[in-house]
Specification:
This protein is an alpha/beta fold. 50% of the residues lie in helices and 9% in strands. The chain has 14 helices and seven strands. It is elongated, with a radius of gyration of 22 Å. It comes from Brevibacterium paucivorans. This is DUF4192 domain-containing protein.
């Protein structure tokens, strides 16, 4: 088990990045620690929406709600809190603008209320950290400011809870062409191979336009999503754990080899090839690309497959450690189809504090 020394704001921001796979913007994030004194085991992470407007509107009721969210998520004795918001960095005067005293007072007031409620439910907090514009510091020491290197705290990722717009070209191809299963599988393999370039180059997709999705692949994924076995196969493909689905080789598969590999996996121990079910931390640039790709597929898929695809998206959000996003997409899937048992499983994981194995 890796031992991490935590003593500075930079350490704590890196801790959030490690726990969640990124530092989410406009958020209050808590990383949980199960014991108070000395070395201990880190638990999951909890994120709530929290920008400067939320700071200004802060009330005692909000503090109580936040404390209850932390309490329900997972048993813990200590939390590491991080306010992640570019506007907080601006309010503190660390982006070249004048310090805004009223906002600083509002921020300290909000934290005091949250800390009071956490204490009431038996949770201790270390001093809170702010981060934004790739800088960070202690909330209670506004003049302190340190650069955060190699961790993106001004995210250029599309909002993780959003779905992209439909692409007219893909929609037109879906409406005008039926396709055949072999060519659709070829399209899926090609799309999967393109996604793997993000794993091989260590780069994060900068925007939706950097993700390619083909009409044939949408049809192939619809077919796989038609039942639980196919859905498991789909998750296995994008987990990229099986030797044949590794980033450097998946593009070499023929449709026949692709199906043979899936059948081989389904007949054996499938869990060993599912991301999130072992202690290996997912490759985050690749995982982000998979999430963006699946969201593009979802907006082009037929209505009958929409709930299943939202469930798969929820799974990969859970794999990435994005528990609040996983919950959002699981609930969205259930709103479309209340009988979606897979989405119900992801929802239950989050609500019971069951995190991806690598985060434990």
């Amino acid at each position: 088990m890796e031992t991490i020394k935590i003593s500075t704001p930079v350490d704590i921001v890196r801790l959030v990045n490690m726990a969640m796979g990124h530092v989410p913007p406009d958020s209050l994030v808590f990383v949980l620690k199960r014991n108070v004194e000395g070395p201990g085991t880190l638990g999951g992470s909890v994120r709530v929406n929290f920008d400067m407007e939320a700071v200004r509107r802060f009330s005692a009721d909000v503090a109580q709600q936040i404390a209850q969210v932390v309490l329900r998520f997972e048993p813990c004795e200590v939390v590491f809190p991080v306010f992640s918001c570019d506007e907080i960095a601006q309010a503190l005067g660390h982006t070249g603008e004048e310090l805004r005293s009223s906002d600083v007072h509002a921020l300290v007031h909000a934290w005091t209320g949250i800390q009071r409620e956490l204490s009431r439910v038996g949770v201790r907090s270390i001093p809170p950290v702010w981060t934004g514009h790739n800088k960070c510091g202690w909330i209670l020491d506004p003049e302190m400011c340190s650069p955060v290197l190699n961790v993106e705290t001004t995210t250029n990722l599309p909002p993780l809870s959003a779905l992209p717009h439909v692409r007219k070209r893909v929609r037109a191809q879906l409406e005008s062409c039926v396709g055949d299963k072999r060519s659709d599988l070829e399209a899926l393999i090609s799309d999967a191979s393109e996604l793997c370039t993000f794993a091989l180059s260590e780069t994060t997709p900068p925007d939706w336009d950097s993700i390619h999705v083909s009409a044939g692949a949408v049809r192939a994924i619809e077919t796989l999503s038609d039942n639980g076995v196919g859905r498991d196969a789909l998750i296995t493909v994008f987990s990229a754990r099986h030797p044949s689905f590794r980033p450097d080789v998946v593009g070499n598969l023929s449709p026949e080899e692709f199906l043979e590999t899936i059948l081989e996996i389904l007949e054996g121990d499938i869990e060993q090839y599912l991301a999130g079910m072992d202690a290996i931390r997912p490759h985050m640039p690749y995982t982000y690309s998979v999430l963006m790709y699946l969201k593009l597929v979802a907006v082009h898929a037929s209505d009958e497959y929409f709930s299943e695809l939202l469930g798969v998206i929820a799974w990969f959000e859970w794999v990435a450690g994005h528990n609040s996003y996983a919950h959002h997409f699981a609930r969205s899937a259930l709103a479309v189809d209340s009988a979606n048992s897979f989405a119900g499983t992801v929802e239950a994981f989050v609500e019971r504090g069951i995190t991806a194995v690598w985060t434990r």
